[in-house]
Amino acid sequence: SSGPWRALLTLLGLWPGLWPGPGLALAPRPRPPPADTRGDLDSVIHLAKALLGDTKAFLELLKSRFPAEGEHKLDSLPVLAMSALELPNIQASALLPRLGSDLLRYQRLLEWLRRAGGALRGLEPDLGALRSRLERLRGRLEHLVSRLSLPRPAAPPAGAVPVSPPPVSPWGAVRAAHAVTRGLHLYLDWAARGLVLLRNRL
């Protein structure tokens, strides 16, 4: 009478995972495939290139209303992390969090210019629109950083960006606007190149 049971146990022993007896491990679950973040990166690249074009258009508008020859500097502007020659070797872990931190500084600088008033009062809507588009880019960038489990962008150093606009002359506000807009245009051009190179390696 034990013959059929013995045959059944033998059959189950031929199929690993069906009979959790001694020495027989259940088949491990396959790992889920890594999340495809190329679509998120494409979105960030698209927004960065669009903002680059918007910044160029605003810079031309600023020049037409307030011609200012020469180079205008502002100590609180972010510094490019590396040269164009070093970009091909850049890694996502170095590029993306740094972009988030630097773009936050530019966002606060645009808000500072928008509230500066004076000669720039007529450009408040344009500055506000530019700031909103920059904030949208930052949001997509933060989402990508989260998907890749990278460190979150560091906050700008204390005092790097004024909380409220200090009293400046009308010409001082114009010079600051030229410096911020030109710096943002150069930074976005550099960032877009780095993002495209990063995308091509995926």
Automatic annotation (TrEMBL):
Residues 1-25 form the signal peptide. One of its GO terms (biological process) is positive regulation of MAPK cascade. It comes from the Eukaryota. GO terms for cellular component: cytoplasm. InterPro entries: 4_helix_cytokine-like_core, IL-11. The keyword Signal applies. The keyword Signal applies. GO terms for molecular function: cytokine activity; growth factor activity. Keywords: Signal. This is IL11 protein. It comes from Ptilorrhoa leucosticta.
